[in-house]
Amino acid sequence: MRALRAVHATAAALTTAGLAWTLWHGIAEPGTALAFGLLIAVGELARWAARPGVAAPVLAEPWGREAAPLGAAGALAYALLGESAGRPTTHGVLQTVAVVFAAALAGAVPHVARGCGPALDHLARRVLTTAFAAVCFQPLYNSGRLDQTVGQGPFYALFLVLLLVLTALCDAVLAALMLRARTGYRFGPLLRDELRALLGVGSAVCATGAVIALAVAAAGLWALPLFCVPLLLTQLSFRRYAAVRATYRQTIASLARATEIAGYTTPGHAHRVAALSLAVGRELGLSEPDLTVLEYAALMHDIGQLSLVDPVPEGATALLPAAEQRRIALLGGAVVRQTGVPAAVAVVVERQADPYREQPLPARIVRAVNAYDDLAGETAQGSLTALEQLRLGTARDYHPAVVESLARVVARGCVTGRTPG
Q1: In the prediction, which pLDDT does 323 show?
Q2: CA–CA dist 297, 353 (Å, integer)
Q3: How far apart are the C-alpha atoms of 244 and 238, rounded to whole Å?
Q4: For the chain, first and last CA: distance in Å?
Q5: Could you tell me which residue, 387 or 113, shows the higher pLDDT?
Q6: Considering Cα of 209, then 173, then 66, then 92, what sign does the dihedral take?
Q7: DSSP character for 308?
Q8: What is the DSSP letter of 198?
Q9: Helices (DSSP H) in 257-376: which residue ranges?
């Protein structure tokens, strides 16, 4: 958490300096500052946010990496604004930080009132990313060095694109660093997922930011609504897509509860296995697509028990003979293939009872986590006993790296509430 505190402290220091400087010297080009402030505030108002009282999905939506893309594009455009309708601007770095922070905070007020306001990490990332872009651009432009070096032609646009790429990389590193500090997951896989997300949301934000800065420089503030509407419409469309995806996940989760309702498994077993499997998958560095497959497979891993005439006592398939475990897994895979989920999910369900050397990594994770939940019970002593039994089974049944990763996740106690003491 030391790195997270350092990031927050840096953002707080920059914000304080920006607000103090702006209050002392006054606002340069107040019309331009107000226009961009309104744009950023509208972007924050339109940000994606979970409804209060509704549990957030285990996996973040891809758009959730940048919940307010219009606000991010507006902030970047203001940081890279050198002219407005042909007249040079003089707002500088500190005023950029002050306007962006004030606008983002104003746009967050309705979300905070609903109980789903942006986290401190979101504001810190916005301030630091904008400050990075402004520091790289404003001094060069205001001193005239940028004009002497690249001029105002295509090389100027190329310079903006290059600067936006560097800014996006800075934001990805910040996001991965914050996630690493909060979750304890490995930095490399987190950074890889953030960089992969840049090809989607990040590229749209960077392109819109560059176009807005160039358009305002040539046509003035009237260019703002014209070039922001496409990104806003895209954001609203993606919110509908995210709602459909959330409904799809809820359907799978409801189907997974069929074994609980029928009395084949203990209440909450599928959701505990899914949450813990995802934590282990993160620990082992699985990509976002693989984590989605892992989540769906973990939710539906016991669906094959519905084909049994007599329920397994307490649904504990880990205690059954290997041949019976494999039969139930194959039955479950056949059921999963009828639901329309990706075939990779059915493969994981089918192979969860195979020897671990023959399994894909998601199947290894589901098998180990399922056995842990079957064996652990609700006490710390039961958790220790379950982990010990899994370690004894690493010769054939459970992959050693998966078991050790599971032990680290359980020791943190942030998923199931069970700790080894």
Answers
A1: 84
A2: 13
A3: 10
A4: 22
A5: 387
A6: negative
A7: -
A8: I
A9: 258-261, 269-283, 288-299, 322-337, 343-351, 361-376
Instruction: Specify the 3-state DSSP secondary structure of 83.
Output: strand
The Cα-based distances of 304 to 44, 113, 296, 318, 335 in angstroms read: 45, 45, 14, 14, 7
Residue 296 has pLDDT above 80, yes or no: yes
The CA distance from 414 to 279, in Å, is: 9
Residue 316's region, left for phi above 0, alpha for psi from -120 to 50, else beta, is beta
pLDDT reading at 332 higher than 50 = yes
**DSSP-assigned letter for residue 389:** H
Cβ within 8 Å of residue 297, ≥6 positions away: 336, 345, 348, 349, 352, 362, 363, 366
Residues present in the chain in total: 421
Question: What pTM did the predictor assign?
Answer: 0.77
- How far apart are the C-alpha atoms of 185 and 284, rounded to whole Å? 8
* 10-31: pLDDT as tens digits: 999 999 999 999 999 999 999 9
Q: Mention every residue, 6+ apart, whose C-beta is less than 8 A from residue 336.
A: 297, 300, 303, 345, 346, 349
- Which residues face 122 on adjacent strands? none
Q: In this structure, what token pair is assigned to residue 70?
A: 């219009």
179 and 288 in contact (C-beta within 8 Å)?
A: no
Q: Which residues contact 278 (CB under 8 A, 6 or more apart)?
A: 58, 59, 291, 294, 295, 298
- 154 contacts 121 by C-beta, under 8 angstroms: no
Task: For residue range 170-184, list pLDDT tens digits in order.
Answer: 998 998 898 888 877
Q: Which residue has tokens 């509430």? A: 417
- Token output for 330: 């194959």
**Would you list the DSSP string of 223-275?**
HHHHHHHHHHHHHHHHHHHHHHHHHHHHHHHHHHTHHHHTTSS-TTHHHHHHH
